[in-house]
Amino acid sequence: MNIHEYQAKELLAKFDIAIPAGFAALSVEEAVAGAEKLPGPLYVVKAQIHAGGRGKGKFKELGADAKGGVRLAKSIDDVRADATEMLGNTLVTIQTGDAGKQVNRLYVTDGVDIANEYYLSMLVDRATGRIAMIISTEGGMDIETVAHDTPHLITTITIDPATGFTDADGKKAAAALNLSGDLAAECEKLTANLYKAFTSLDCEMLEINPLVESADGKLLVLDTKMSFDGNALFRHPELLPLRDETEEDPAEVEASKYDLAYIKLDGDIGCMVNGAGLAMATMDIIKLNGAFPANFLDVGGGATKEKVTAAFKLILSDPAVKGILVNIFGGIMRCDIIADGIVAAAKDVNLSVPLVVRLEGTNVEQGKEILANSGLPIVSANDLGDAAKKIVAEVKQAA
Ligand code: ADP
Ligand code: MG
Question: What residue stretches are annotated with the ATP-grasp fold succinyl-CoA synthetase-type domain (predicted)?
């Protein structure tokens, strides 16, 4: 789960991490009211979307010369003008794709006199199975470019889970940024607190770009992106209200309501499968037969009628789908119960495309009988190869 910059900053502040003062705003009036509470004379108005590269982004509705999604404002009137121009318009950045994202929220924050911009991020490194802190003196810009052109300017600190973040790790971080004296001490404290935030919130990724040294010698978090491990969210009821569904893919939001693992793909054969491994195998065998899957969809172990119906609706909401292949192994769940669910769901959604079903496992014969007696044009298949051949043929015939 991703959250907005202002939400991430509010969370970091609780871990004694220095952030400039700021206020979130849903309207021009709120943006102005927020600015009035700040000392000035420099304000920054920032678009809140779940994508980076806002500063260099362009608004679709505004001319090519218009300012981007992070704007320095020198007066309250400028804040008002910028907020008016940004709210409701569509910001396109290197991370949003061509469609861009509509700006519905702003963050109005203190303008900082910047002496230096640094980069710092943390993530779970799958190769070492540990949390890695990635640090660079080259902040404010695209870190992929830094990694490609000047990899020696990036330092990675791998943190041992047995000791947690140590003083030595903090010293390495300060050294990577060439800091000394008070700033080095500040950096050591900051990185230790970031590690605490990362682990206690079960983050998946935390990126600070830029981390800045201000002209008056302080280290401040100017921009941050934070995402959480979805599998750990049950431990954090306090984080759930931070979710902004308007930033997510609508089909994937719908899927998550029913606890379905759904990812949209480019093909035309919708798949409904239980178990991620079987789902992968099903996608492979569709390809082997010369067609392409329209989605990955794992309905999970306990596929109830409600889940199966929701899954059918989800698959059919994709206009590219020309046929559906259901491939379910009835282990804990019996095949007759699954068949009942499929028949009820197919009736419920007025199924309009060919449907091939392959069931295997407990009570498979009863399950097949239910499908055959349903009065629906369901094609039954005997094994995975047979199922794939049948759905590909059905779709070709219908085309
Ligand atoms: P993005 O990464 O989405 O472009 P940032 O928040 O990193 O957005 O802003 C882009 C640039 O704008 C920063 O690298 C920094 O130079 C400047 N900036 C951002 N916030 C402030 C601020 N509060 N004060 C001064 N400059 C800022
Ligand atoms: Mg940034």
Answer: 2-213
**DSSP result, 336-356:** HHHHHHHHHHHHHTT--S-EE
Q: Which fold has domain 114-235?
A: D-amino Acid Aminotransferase; Chain A, domain 1 (3.30.470)
Beta strands 224-228; 203-214: pairing state: antiparallel
Which DSSP letter does residue 325 get? E
Catalytic: 61? no
Tell me how far the alpha carbon of residue 308 lies from the centroid of ligand 1, in angstroms. Answer: 46
Token duo for residue 243: 């979710």
165 HSE (CA, 13 A, CB side): 23
What's the pLDDT score for residue 309?
83
Q: Which CATH architecture has domain 250-398?
A: 3-Layer(aba) Sandwich (3.40)
CA dist 289 → 280, 295, 312, 382 (Å): 15, 16, 23, 16
What pLDDT band is residue 28 in, cutting at 50, 70 and 90? very high
CATH 3.30.470.20-classified regions of the chain: 114-235
Return the ∠ at Cα 74 (arms to 70 and 77), rounded to 5°: 95
Nearest CA to ligand 1 atom 14: 140
What mean pLDDT is predicted for residues 23-41? 97
- Rounded CA-CA distance 326/273 in Å is 6
Structure tokens that stand for 107 in this block: 């963050």
Query: What six digits make up the tokens of 192?
Result: 């230790």
Q: What is the pLDDT of residue 113?
A: 96
The model carries a pTM of 0.81
Buried-state track 183-216, b at ≥16 Cβ within 10 A, e below 16: bbebbbbbbbbbbebbeebbbbebbbbbbbbbee
d(CA 45, ligand 1 centre) in Å: 10
Give the residue whose CA is nearest to atom 10 of ligand 1.
Answer: 55
Q: Is 119 a catalytic residue?
A: yes
